[in-house]
Amino acid sequence: MAFSLHSHSGEFCPGHAKDNLEDVILIAIARGMKSFALTEHMPRESEEDLYPEEIAAGHTIALLPPRHTLYLQTATTLRAKYADKIHILIGFEGEWIRSSYGPFIQEYASDPRIDFFIGSVHHVHGIPIDYDAATYAQAVEKAGSEEKLFEDYYDSQHEMLRALKPRVVGHFDLIRLLAKEPDADLKTYGGGRVWEKAIRNLEIVKEQGALLEVNSAGLRKGLKEPYPGKSVCEVWKEMGGKFTLSDDSHGIAQVGTNYVRMLDYLDGLGVEEVWTLEKLEGKELVEKKVTLKEVRETFKA
């Protein structure tokens, strides 16, 4: 039973992603996905929080809430339309940029059409850390050093986890994407201080009962391992934590990209089962265990 708990479309994340939401769902069906979560990026609260491509396209903060409302309407319609072919979850990806985003995210999460949201950190000191080398360099300069930026990232993630208790934690070690040594072992990075903060955060994720996302987009973006890297996954497995899967697709070309490599990666770590979320009509959102064997059986590479 192949599934993904993290995706985007160009219809509701224009410039950031590609293609209409319905086309993304149709490709997910064609790739053998039996469950697929729609998690467009949430609105933001300040013009300074827009991404460079949004600014270049002339977008404003005022455009985002009505677009989000239209997204929820469209997603609800599509879920009903394709209910006999795929189980669709409706959510969004949280944008923890500063502490004021706590109530902002909780307000959007309270909409009855939302099944869950992904707890993510894409910014440190208000600067995107996964957009491009230039903006990453600005974040390093603001932090004072790359090592300090990593520490600040995990401190921001810690604040997000404490405030929001997300059901799914997205790309736990996203901070390494544009680093000088993106494939370095986090366990030995920065003399151990970064690793201590990462472990602290994993303990909170476990305490809160959240799912830790294994995200194949890291492979698509040139990393040797998905998010999170091997050391993080090993510790999470030792903790008895639950993994979930995502392609973090940004359009039809990326649905299921590198899924086989990601499954092989988990096999190599001795992981035999992962978890997805399920929301049946009139029922509460629940976790559902799926073996890697079952994921492979329906996925069409």
TrEMBL record:
GO CC, one annotated term: cytoplasm
CDD domains: PHP_HisPPase_Hisj_like
A Pfam family the protein falls into: PHP
EC nos: 3.1.3.15
UniProt pathway annotation: Amino-acid biosynthesis; L-histidine biosynthesis; L-histidine from 5-phospho-alpha-D-ribose 1-diphosphate: step 8/9
MF (Gene Ontology): histidinol-phosphatase activity
GO terms of biological process kind: L-histidine biosynthetic process
Keywords in alphabetical order: Amino-acid biosynthesis, Histidine biosynthesis, Hydrolase
Enzyme class: hydrolase
Keyword S-adenosyl-L-methionine part of the UniProt annotation: no
Gene3D superfamilies per UniProt: Metal-dependent hydrolases (3.20.20.140)
Domain PHP: 5-217
Reaction catalyzed: L-histidinol phosphate + H2O = L-histidinol + phosphate
InterPro entries linked: Histidinol_P_phosphatase_HisJ, PHP_dom, Pol/histidinol_Pase-like
Family, as annotated: Belongs to the PHP hydrolase family. HisK subfamily.
PANTHER family: HISTIDINOL PHOSPHATASE-RELATED, HISTIDINOL-PHOSPHATASE
Protein name as it appears in the record: Histidinol-phosphatase
Organism (species): Glarea lozoyensis (strain ATCC 74030 / MF5533)
Lineage: Eukaryota, Fungi, Dikarya, Ascomycota, Pezizomycotina
